[in-house]
Design goal:
The structure is a homooctamer. The first copy, chain A, is 39% helix and 17% strand. A five-stranded parallel sheet of chain A has the order 8-7-9-10-11. In chain A, strands 3-4-6-5 form a four-stranded mixed sheet, sandwiched between helices. In chain A, helix 6 packs parallel to helix 11. The radius of gyration of chain A is 21 Å and the shape is globular. At the A-B interface, strand 11 and helix 11 of A face helix 9, strand 11 and helix 11 of B.
C-alpha cells in the first residue's frame, strides 16, 4: 500500500464513503493470501520489483503445488529453485506449461513473457566444471527476472591465461556474477580487471579443508579487490536477484 | 593498456618506428611504480574507475607518506582508511591539505574536486550507536568516490517502528548500505521494504556469542530477503566501493 | 520425597515403628524403576510438574515399548518425540490408544485428559514453510502439557507486513515461542513488539553458511530485543516445556 | 500507538477535527526522539513494559550523557550496563543522583521508586566466585525492573551437597536465573530440582577449551533438563529482563 | 626388547656366541610382522601390557581376517572394535570361536582365559539410554583386558537422585568410566562424589548444538571437578584401556 | 557424612538422644562455610581425598585472603594456582609462611607436612622450553598432594633420540603426565613406550594454526596410543590431581 | 607462449610475414580448447611441466569422456583421480587402454611411456591401514608423472620401533610424502629423522574429535620439525605433484 | 649415531676394548646437551642438514643466552627468530657479533660464513605491504641456511599485471615462497605460471572474516594449482627451511 493509497483511504474516511471500521480493517489487511501452509505474498512484485520465488528444498509436492497454484491464479510467473528432476516431473503433471532446467535444478512457469528490464548484460563467470550447477541457477534466475545473461566457464585462476583471453567479454558486462569453489580466488582477479559490480558466489565444491564452501566464502569476503560483494554458499539465485536489481535502469 | 594501444604499438613495430626490443619491453611495463615498500598502481583509476586506496592499519608513518607522495605527485586524490588520530596528525605535517575524519578514522587528500559520477543517492542505514564508525567509513568513502550519500542511524529491528517511519527515505535511495552488529537482521528487513540493491555490512559490535561479528555476518549471508549481498565484517570502505560501482550511470 | 515425608519417616524411626535399617534403605530408594535399559523416573511429575518424556531418536522399538509400558502402567500420559512414522506404527500395535502426529513426529498416549494448567495462551510463531515441523512439535507438546496453544506461520521478516498484520494475536498471548531458521531474526522483531516472554527456537533450515542452524542460533543469542531466551536448534519440545512452566498460574 | 488510539485518530479525521495531512503525519511519527547519535525510544516502556536501557560498552561519555539526559527529562528511570568505574564517576558529575553498582558494573538513576510488579521472587544462583559480576548484573537489573530478587552463590556441581542444602530456597522462587562458567552444568541440575522456569546464563569464566564461554553455552543449550532456556554469554542483563517478563502477574 | 635382553645380547656378542652382523640385525628387527596391509605388533603386549587391538571401522573383511590370523597364530587373544553385525558374521566363518557383542559392536576371540590383572572393579556409569553402546564397548574392553567391570546406567544429572541412590557402588569402584552425551555434566558430578580416578567419555548423542559430541567434550574438558580426564568422543575402548592400566596392582 | 555417620545419627534419633528437628537440620547441614564470596568446602578432603584448591585467576586479593583464612584456620594446607608474582607477594604479607613458586605461578601454605600417599613416582615429561610453566604447575601440585614427582624436559618428538635416551626413567614411573604444545604428539610416542597410565596436557604454546592449544588438544584426543587420557589446555593442576588419585595405593 | 615465441612473432610482424590483425589474435589465443563443459588446457604441460589432470569427483561420465577425448587426441597421457570402480568401468568401454587402480581410485591412460624425470626416489610413508587409499593415490600419481616411487606402510608413532627399523629406506629417498590421520604426528617424527623435504598429507581417518581430518591437518601445520609442508586433507594427488616438481633435476 | 658407528661399537665390544656396561651407556647417550632449561641438539646439523634454531617468542633473556652460549661454544652459527628489538639489544650485549634484522625480527650470529649449498635461487614473493615481515623472516632464514634468495613484493592478485610483469624472475627461481594474507590467492596464481615447487605462507594480515590468517590458510590448502604446499600462518621460517631442503643439489 503506497502513501498515495493511504491518503486516498483517509480522504474516503473523511468523506464518509468508507466507514471507520472498514478503514481499520484495510490498514491491517495487506495483500497476501493464506494457503494453509504459507502466506503467499502477492504484494512482493510491487514492493520489491520481483515476484516471490519458491525455495523447493525440503518442501513436499503438495506444498509446492498449492503455492504455485495460488501464484499462477494471480497471473504471476513462477520460479521454483532447488528442485530435483523427480519432484519437478511430478509437479509438471499439474502445471503442463512448466519447464524444468536440469543443470540449474529449477522449474519455471512463464505465463507471460518476462518483460525485459535490464539495461545491460549480466555475465556469469564460473571457475570449474563442478561449479556449473550454481552458475546455471544464476543464469536461469537472471533471465527469469528479465535480463540478458551470458556465461563464461572453466576459467579458474590456476591457468590465468584462460581468463585473460576473455577480457573483452568481461569488460562488456554491466554486472558480473563470479562463481567459484575451492579457494574462491576468481572474483578477486575478475574484480581487479573490470570497473563493474562483481557479485561473488562461493560453491560447496572441494573436499577436506574446503569445508563445504567455507574456504571459498572466506576467500571472497577477504577479497583484496575493493567492491566485490558476496552471497551465501551455492546461492546462485540470490546473486542473480542482486544482479537484476543492479541491472535495472 | 587498451586493445587500441596494443594495435598502435604493433603498427609502430611494423612500420619500424618502434624497435622490437622496445616493444617487448613496453608490453611488460605496465604503469605502476616501485616506491620501495609497494608497487603503486597508477593504472587502477583507468582500469577500475577508482583510485588506489591506502589501508592504513599496520602500515608505518613512512610507508604511508611514501605511497601518498607517489600518488599525490601523480595528481590523484588520496584516501587512507583505518588510520588513528595520532598517526593522521603526524602525516598531516607532510600533507597540509589532508583532512582527518575522526568518526570514520579516514584521512583524505583532495587535490581536485571529486567529480560527481553517481546517478542517485547512496543511503547508509545503521542499527546501533556503536555501529557509527563503520557507517562513517562508508559515508566518507562514498563521497570521496563522487557520490551523493546520506545516513539514517539507530534504527535497529527491536523497535521496528523507528525504521518504518523512514520508509520514504529508504525508497528514494538508489543503493543502500545497511550496517549492523549483534544479530545483523536489519539488512533483511530493509531488503524486504525496497526494490534497490542492498549491501550488508556486519560489524564486530556485540559480545559473547557475537564472536566479533560472526553472528551478524552469518545472519546477513542467510538473509531471507533475496538480493542482499554482503562484505567483510566492519568493511564500510568495501561496501561504499561496491555501492559506487552500482551507482554509476 | 518432600521435607514433610522426611519428617514423617524420622518420627516413625523415633517411635520405633520403622526400624533403622529400613529407614536407611528408604532414604536411598527414591521412586524410580529399573526397566533394564533405563531408570524410569515416576517421581518427575511431582518434582518438576511434568511427566518424563521419551526422546525417540536412536532408541529401538523394544526400548520405547518397555519404557512406555512402565509409564502407562503407572497411569501416566506418555509423549514420545522425534519418532518417524514407521516406528510409530509398529509401536501403535502394542499401545492401541496412542496417536501419531505426523507433522510433529510425535506419538502421544493420553490415558486421562490433560489437566488444563495454563493461565493464558501459548502462541507459536514460525517463519517459513520449512520451519513447520519444529513448530508442530512445540504445539503438540504445549497441548500435551495442558496449555491452550495457537499457531501463526509463514511470517518471515523479509515481508514484515505479514507479521505486523497479526499484531493483535501477538499481543494477546501469554508466552510466545518463535521458530525461525536462516538468519533467525523473527524473535527479535516479535520481541520488540510485545511485552511477554519470548522463547526463540532456531531451526536447522537453510544451506551453506546456515551451518545447520548455527546462524539462526547465534542470531537469536545476540538478539537486540532484551528478554528473548533461546533453546537448542530444532528443540520445539524444550521450548514448549519452558513455555508451559511460564504459563502456569 | 495502540489500536484504540488509532480508532480515535480515525474518528477525529472523520469528524474533521484532525485534518488528513496531520493524520498522515501522526501515523508515521511514533514517539522516539533524535538526539544526534541515537533515536531514544520513549515508547518502549508502553510497548514492552520496560524502559530502554543503555548498553555502556563502547559508548563515549558524551553519548551516554546525551541519551541519559533525554530519558531523564522524560521522567524515566535509567539503567546503564557494562560501564566501568571511571566512566561512571565522570557521568555522576552530570547526574548527581546516579548510583554506581561496582560488582555489577551498572549505573542507575532512579527518579521515582521502581514500581513493584513481580508476583514472586527472582532467584539468582551462581556457580563460582568468578561468576559473581554476571550474577550481580542480573540482580541489579531485576530489582531495577521492579522485582524481588535474591542470590545464592558458589554452589557449583562438583560439590553437589552445597546446592542440595539450599533446596528450599530454590523451591520458593518464582523464576530462577542460573549463572555458570566452565562446563555450565549447574542449570541442568537446578532445572531437575524445581518446577519453575530456569534461565541459564553462561559466563566467559574458564580457560583453554572453555573458549570464552562457548563450552558453558553449549552445555546449557544441550541441557537434559527440559525447560531450561539460555541467553548470550555474560548476559546477566538479558536474563533479568526475561525473568522480569515471566514474573509479572 | 627389555634392557635385560639388550644386556644379554651384548654379553653374547662379547662371548662370540652371537656374531656382530646378527646382533646388528636383531637390534633393528623388533618383533613385528608384515602381513601385506599392516605391520602386526606382536611386541605390544610385552611393551604396553595389552595386546594390539583391531579398529574395525573402514577395514575390509580380508584385512581384518589377515591381521586376526597373524595374531591368532601367535597365540594372542583378539579384540576387534567398531565392527557391525554383518561383517562380524562373515568373519566368524573363519574364526569359529569368535564371539560377537552386539551392543558394543565388538568381536572377541579368546584363545586362553583373560588373566585377571586388576586390583579392583572398573565401574562404567552412563547417562542416557542412547549412551549404552559406548558404555558397552568400554565394558567389553575392560573385561577383555582382565578386569572386573560393572555398569550403572540411565543416571543423568537432570534427575540427580537416581545417581545419589547409587552412592555406595560409586564409592566401591577402583576406577570409574563415566559416559555421557548432550551437556556431558555427569563426570563432574560423579567426580565430586568419589575419591577415585574418573575417566570421562563424551558421546555423539544429541542434536543441534550438541555438534556430534563437541558440547559434551568441552563440558568434560572444563569440568570443575579436579582430576577428571577425558578421551575422544565415543571412545569407550580407549577409556577402558586407560582404566585397565590404572587398575593394575 | 559417611554411611556410618548416617546410621549413628539415626540410632541417636531412635534412642531419643538427638531430637528429630536437630536431625533434620544436620541432614541438610554439610560441613561447608559461607565466607561472603564463597562456600568453603571443608568436607572435600574427606570426600575426595584432596583439599579444596583456590583458582587464583580473576580473584581479587581480598577474596583469596578470605578463603585462605577460612582454610588455614581449619588446619588445612592451602594451594593457590594461577597467581602472578605481584598478587602473591601482597598475600604473603598476611600469610608469612606461604611460599611462591615462580615458574609454576603457584602459592602454597603448608601447615603440616604433606603426608606421603603415593605408591610410586609421578613423572612429568615436557616437550619444549615454553611448556615449562605448565609442567611446573603439575610438579608443584603433585608434590603438594603428597607424591614423589620428577621432571624430564625438552624432549620433543622432532628429535626422538632425546626421548628414547630417557627410556628407563619413563619405564620406572607409576604415572606419567606428558605436557606438549604445537602438534601435541609427545603423549602418543610416550604412550607407545610404557605400560603405565599417561595423562596428556596440551599447552597453549604455538602460533597461527595452533589456535591457542586446540591443535595440541585435538592431537592428544586422537592419539593412536590407546590409554592416553587428556585434560584441558594448560591444566597442569588437573593432570596432577588425576595422577595423584591414580598413584594412591 | 614463451618469450622467444613472442619475439619471433613480433619479428614476423615487423617483416610483414604476419599481419597485425593476426598477431593481435594470436596474442590473445592461448592453446586451450573449449569442449563444451570445460576449457582443456593443452598448454599446461609446457607451462607447468605436468599435464592437466581430471578430478573425477562430481563429474558425470559424459564430462569425463569429453575431456579425456580432447586430451587423448592431443596425444597426452591422462590421469583421472577420485573415480569409483563403477564409473571407471563405464569409461573404460570408450578408452580400452585405460587402467583402473582400485586402491587409489585412479584411472590412467598412458599413450606413451611416462618419461622418467626424477633424480631420485619419492618415498610414500603411511601410518595406518586406513590411510592406504590416500597413499595409493600419491603413489600412482608420482609414477604417472615419471618418478620412481616406493611405499612404507603401517608405521604409526604409537609403535615407534616399526618406523625406526626402516631408517635406511627413509634416508635413501629424495623426497618423502608422509600420510597420516588421527593425530597426524608421523610427519614430525619422520621430519626429525631425515634431511630431505617432507610433504605431509593429513587424512580424514578417525572419528569424534578427528573432525574429518582437521586434527591431523592442524597437527601437521604445527609440526615442530622445521621444513615440513602440508597439503589438503586426503590430497595424495597434490602431494605427489609437489614431490614430482621437487624431484626433478 | 650412524649404522657404521654402531658396527664399530659392537666390534669394540667383541674385541673387549669397550666394556659391555659402557656400550649400554653409549647406546643411550646421543650427542645432546642439558643446559638446564633445554636439551641442545648438537646432532641436528648432522642429522637434518641444518642447525637447531631458537624460537625466541616466550623465551626469557637468560634462556636464550644459555642456549646460544651452548651452541656458540660448539662452533655453530645461530639463528633466533621471533625476537623483538629490545630483547635482541639486550642479548647483543653478551654476543657482540650478533646481527639484528629488524624487519624480520631475527637475530643471527654467524661464526663462520654460511656455506653455500643451494643449486639455485629461492624467490620470495609477497602480496601486500603488511606481509613484508613474514617475507623478511623467510629471506633471512633462507640466506642463513646458505641459499641465494631474492624478493618480489606488493604483487597482489587484484592487480594481476604487476605479477605478470615479473614473469621472467618467477621462471628463473628454483623454489618459490609465496607470502599472502587476506584471501591468500597469490600462490595459486603463481603456481599456475611456473613449473617449480611453490611453498605458500598464509599471513595473519586482514580483519574480520580473515580470522587471523585462517581465510588465507584455507585458500592455500584448497589451491587449484596442483603442487602448492603450505606451512603454518606467518611461518616464514618454516617455509625457508623447506625451500632450503629442496634447493640442495
Amino acid at each position: 500500500m503506497t502513501p498515495d493509497q493511504l491518503k486516498l483511504l483517509l480522504d474516503s474516511v473523511k468523506e464518509g464513503t468508507v466507514p471507520v471500521e472498514q478503514a481499520v480493517e484495510r490498514l491491517r489487511q495487506l495483500p497476501f493470501q493464506d494457503v494453509g501452509c504459507a502466506q503467499v505474498d502477492h504484494h512482493r512484485e510491487l514492493r520489491q520489483g520481483m515476484p516471490e520465488v519458491i525455495f523447493g528444498e525440503g518442501k513436499k509436492d503438495e506444498q509446492i503445488i498449492t503455492i504455485m497454484g495460488a501464484m499462477a491464479e494471480n497471473g504471476s510467473n513462477v520460479l521454483v529453485t532447488r528442485i530435483d528432476a523427480d519432484k519437478a516431473q511430478r509437479i509438471q503433471r499439474t502445471f503442463f506449461g512448466a519447464l524444468y532446467h536440469a543443470n540449474a535444478r529449477c522449474l519455471t512457469l512463464e505465463q507471460r513473457p518476462a518483460e525485459a528490464k535490464g539495461r545491460g548484460t549480466i555475465l556469469v563467470v564460473s571457475a570449474g566444471t563442478s561449479d556449473l550447477p550454481v552458475a546455471a541457477e544464476a543464469l536461469v534466475t537472471a533471465r527469469f527476472l528479465g535480463n540478458e545473461a551470458e556465461h563464461i566457464y572453466d576459467v579458474g585462476v590456476a591457468g590465468i591465461h584462460r581468463l585473460l583471453a576473455r577480457h573483452e567479454e568481461l569488460a562488456a558486462a554491466s554486472v558480473l556474477i563470479v562463481v567459484a569453489g575451492m579457494e574462491g580466488a576468481l572474483p578477486t582477479v575478475v574484480g581487479g580487471l573490470v570497473d563493474k559490480p562483481v557479485i561473488a558466489v562461493p560453491t560447496s565444491i572441494g573436499y577436506g579443508a574446503a569445508f563445504g564452501g567455507i574456504a571459498a566464502l572466506l576467500g571472497m569476503l577477504n577479497s583484496c579487490a575493493a567492491g566485490v560483494t558476496v552471497v551465501n554458499i551455492d546461492n546462485g539465485f540470490g546473486a542473480a536477484c542482486a544482479a537484476s536489481l543492479i541491472n535495472r535502469a
